[in-house]
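hi! just following up on the protien thing from before. the input was this:
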Amino acid sequence: MELMYPLIIYIGVPLVLVLFLIRFKKKDTYRKGNRVANAEFVETNPYYKKLMVQYKVFGTIAMLGLLIATWVSLVLMSRPVEVDVVTEEIKNRDIFICMDISGSVDETNVELMDELKTVVESLDGERFGITIFNAKSVLLIPLTNDYKYIMDTLDDLEESFNESLLYTKYLEGEYLTEEEMDIVNNFDYQKYYYKYAGTLGEEGSSFIGDGLATCLYNFSDLETNTDRTRIIIMTTDNELNGTPLISIEDAADLCTKHDVKVFGIAPSHIANEEQFKGAVLSTGGAYYNTTDEKAYEKLVNDIKATDASVLEKTETIVYDQPELLVILLVVFMGIYFALSRKVKL
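and the predicted 3d structure came back as:
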């Protein structure tokens, strides 16, 4: 056990001793004499002698209790603590999921959800973030290692994708089971619009280059900390509708410039596959199509195989240790008050 403020002890203990000594050395004319005359009869009385013994014993114990309680209070004021220096290894890797949330990619996103949750569950100190895009890009989760928050957000996204898939089936007149019809009849618009919040725009949809570039610049300390391993997992069907601010090729060049690898996964109906595949591969990442055998499994394994440097983080943790001292303080103060009332100190 250590004391955060030992100066209190160095000053307080001598001061308390001085005060007690002054108290006991107080001049009193009648301290060793009798305060009344003709007290011989009382002094020889056995009951009186018994009371005097009790008075001296209880009085001494009470004053000792007060003295000890005072010292314990000084120690408490000095803040007793236990200092623990912890060194842990942290994987130096950041992962962003960048999702095209247009309806044509819903099925791919739903299939990817379980794999992404597997990735998150396997993380150990790495940071994870989520951006979604359509005409505009939205940062759902900045880089964090709060994995419960990440999992909850992935669950919300999965529910939104499922609602969107079901609604699309209903609008296109596809066969729906009785259970699916019950869901449609009690449609949850809040879940449905969760993925669309902030991503829609009048100028078009599925701006892939804008989505990737925006996701890139959501990496914290991108310019200053070049030692971290950075990865983007991107889902899209590459079906551009409108004029983006930046093309997918230029966005991929920016990723390459900042040493960020892009792992792209696309559905079977991807538009201009060679364009998207070439852009992704140019970053040093990999491309997967959902028609590939075990595409999601390969994606997860390739991400895990990327090099992640390990940092040592040393942290000093201070634990307050007042419990025993508080108990002692209560006990000795209780002794003082109980006995001082008995002998009327």
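The two ends are 36 Å apart (CA to CA).
The chain has twelve helices and ten strands.
cheers
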